[in-house]
Write a structure and sequence with these properties.
This protein is an all-alpha fold and 267 residues long. The protein has helices spanning 4-18, 21-42, 49-73, 78-82, 86-90, 96-124, 131-135, 138-158, 162-190, 197-206, 208-219, 224-228, 238-262.
Length: 267
């Protein structure tokens, strides 16, 4: 049952993460680039500014949000272990699963703060009629961040050293954000288009960054580039999308909890 230790740990995690200099730096950079995109889109004549700013902000979010989330999550458990504070935490009236959930929720709150700052910069300098559409970007962007934060927490439970967790987090970031799509394009080139469009569709949806891009580019009517390549990536139903996001948010935490339960010593 959730108790005072759980609540205190959650608040502590939030306060510690929002003061992290790397999180502050990346959030400010995200906000500055988002504001720059909004200003640039407003200065273009003869085009709808949101049709330029929206997809550009999606691209920025796909780059920055997974990075922030993995930075937030990678040391959640292994960091306590290296500081020799994990046995002390586990001696308190809190279960190992509750420990993971408290850390996840506290860092999720910090992630939401970072995303709000980043997209807030874009909203502040966007055209008044486009702010509502940028606001609609916040919810899916938070889901993207939660998926990668959950992976980061799982990494922190599995890794035995912070340096190992950092290396795994960097590999995951490059894999999901950069190499995954390049791999799909390479697969299509190698097979000369023999791979079915349905398989490509499922592979894109299997990647949280790909699901986010597809969802938001469809929202901004900016998915024409896939159609020009002969790839028709239809959006799944809202129920399927929520199921996919739920799996990405929960399954890594289940793995982290299982590892914590199986591991006897944390020294």
């Amino acid at each position: 049952m959730i108790g005072p230790v759980f609540n205190a740990l959650l608040i502590h995690e939030y306060l510690e993460r929002v003061r992290d200099r790397w999180i502050i730096l990346i959030s400010i950079l995200f906000a500055a680039l988002g504001a720059g995109v909004s200003l640039y889109a407003q200065n273009l004549d003869g085009v709808d500014s949101i049709q330029i700013a929206g997809p550009s902000l999606v691209t920025l979010a796909t780059l920055f949000v997974p990075l922030v989330a993995l930075i937030l999550g990678h040391d959640a458990i292994v960091g306590e272990r290296e500081r020799n504070t994990l046995p002390l935490l586990l001696s308190l009236p809190i279960s190992r699963t509750e420990l993971i959930v408290a850390k996840m929720l506290g860092r999720t709150a910090a992630l939401c703060t970072s995303i709000t700052i980043g997209l807030g910069g874009a909203m502040l300098l966007s055209a008044p009629d486009g702010r509502g559409q940028i606001l609609a970007l916040i919810g899916p962007t938070i889901l993207l961040g939660i998926a990668f934060l959950s992976m980061g927490v799982a990494i922190s439970a599995i890794a035995r050293r912070v340096t190992i967790a950092v290396n795994i987090a960097v590999v995951l970031w490059f894999t999901f954000v950069f190499f995954f799509d390049l791999g799909l394009l390479q697969l299509m080139v190698i097979t000369e288009g023999a791979v079915s469009n349905e398989l490509i569709h499922y592979l894109v949806l299997a990647n949280p960054a790909g699901l986010y891009r597809l969802e938001m580019l469809t929202y901004y009517n900016a998915d024409m580039f896939t159609n020009e390549m002969g790839i028709s990536l239809a959006m799944p139903s809202q129920t399927i999308r929520l199921l996919l996001w739920s799996l990405w948010a929960i399954m890594p935490l289940v793995i982290a909890s299982w590892v914590m339960q199986k591991r006897q010593s944390f020294r």
